[in-house]
Design a protein that fits this description.
heterotrimer; A mainly alpha (about 130); B mainly alpha (about 90); C mainly alpha (about 160); A: about 130 residues; mainly alpha; elongated; C: about 160 residues; Ribosomal Protein S8, Chain: A, domain 1; three-stranded antiparallel sheet; 3 strands
């Protein structure tokens, strides 16, 4: 903790606030994951942690390290972009998988397939 | 002095909240009930673990946790997508 | 130029990530550029046509709108999870999309899924019908209006 002593209060306050907000959002996401009753409701919960939960903590880390190292450190942005792009991919594939499995079991709560050949746009097969 | 106190409180709070969040996600992994619920919980769990590493790195003031967080992010993504794909088709590589 | 850089946006992005992860030095600019160019060639074998947006300004506006929407829906969903008080109903929604461009559809999918409270579940190419799951269903027309007028029209402007 010695390294952080030199940080001025005007920077420490926003860093601390971002950490608190981010971790609270991630916690609420996990709480929702446990408390909500159906899978399709639960799929919304982790996005709290992956959107502003992650963004706030990464922003805090970016500000803190840039101060510590005395130069602008931006590599947190890489993690931020990565999380932002990859989480929707996971959730979409998982949503499609859950739909398929529920339909195979004949779950009445799930809407039937609209027509044949429904794919997420990332999975469109092409010839050649 | 006050600055350090603020930062210690904030990082400790963040570590506690994230550890608890990880625990809740772990409970969801264990109770399921179906495979897609478990995979969703794994997805949430690795993101929480990654954020916990970043906060710990900030608290200790070392940049080495960042690389670990990046590796967790990449491996977690590939792992959960492979699991989800397996649930979708019954095969990982088509 | 098109032979050397089949995917200019991708190559530029890769070089950017390379420079962010390493220390900024002339050596890394050269090495990163080499990696970015070779990765562009490799990707051209998988996906021959590079995305060429007709207009960039709608995409910039879209990014701003999405940034604010994600912030707002984070707050809304967090409040609902804490308790909120009022009754919440989550439901499936069908929305007919006019977009046909695959990249634009992919961007719309990422936007919708990244925003807390909406999840993209299934899209049918033939009918253009999208199946969404909405966490807090106020009424169906609001969501159709949100997707069609807020996001889709801007993506239509950019990709046609």
């Amino acid at each position: 903790m010695t390294a952080l002593e030199a940080m001025p209060l005007w920077l420490a306050l926003p860093v601390a606030a971002l950490l608190v907000v981010g971790s609270t959002l991630a916690f609420l996401g996990a709480l929702g994951l446990l408390r909500l009753t159906s899978f399709y409701e639960r799929i919304h919960a982790p996005t709290l942690g992956t959107s502003w939960g992650a963004a706030a903590i990464l922003l805090a880390s970016l500000l803190g390290y840039s101060w510590l190292q005395d130069r602008v450190i931006l590599h947190e942005i890489v993690i931020g972009l990565f999380v932002m792009i990859t989480t929707p991919v996971t959730l979409m594939v998982l949503g499609a998988a859950a739909l398929k499995r529920d339909r195979e079991e004949g779950d009445p709560a799930v809407p039937p397939r609209a027509a044949t050949g429904g794919h997420a746009p990332g999975h469109v097969e092409r010839q050649g | 002095m006050t600055t350090v106190t603020v930062l210690i409180w904030a990082t400790t709070y963040a570590q506690g909240a994230l550890a608890l969040a990880g625990f809740l996600a772990m409970v969801r992994i264990l109770i399921g009930p179906r495979a897609q619920d478990r995979v969703l919980a794994v997805d949430a769990f690795y993101i929480i673990a990654m954020l916990l590493l970043i906060v710990t790195g900030m608290k200790l003031g070392t940049p080495f946790f960042f690389e670990a967080a990046l590796v967790i992010g990449i491996c977690g993504f590939v792992g959960t997508v492979a699991l989800a794909k397996f649930l979708l088709r019954g095969e990982v590589i088509e | 130029m098109r032979r050397l850089l089949p995917h200019p946006i991708l190559s530029l992005g890769l070089l950017g990530v390379w420079l962010l992860l390493t220390r900024l030095s002339p050596g890394h600019v050269v090495l990163g550029s080499a990696v970015a160019v070779v990765a562009g060639w490799a990707f051209a074998r998988i996906e021959p046509e590079a995305p060429r947006p007709r207009a960039v300004w709608p995409l910039v506006r879209l990014a701003g709108i999405v940034f604010l929407d994600v912030l707002r829906s984070n707050y809304a969903v967090a409040r609902l999870l804490v308790g909120g008080g009022r009754q919440r109903r989550s439901a499936f929604v069908h929305i007919r999309l006019r977009l046909k461009n695959r990249l634009a559809l992919g961007m719309l999918a990422v936007i919708i899924t990244a925003t807390p409270g909406t999840a993209w579940l299934e899209y049918d190419e033939q009918t253009g019908l999208l199946l969404l799951h909405v966490f807090d269903m106020v009424d169906e027309a609001t969501w159709q209006d949100l997707i069609a007028n807020r996001y889709e029209s801007l993506l239509m402007e950019a990709f046609g």
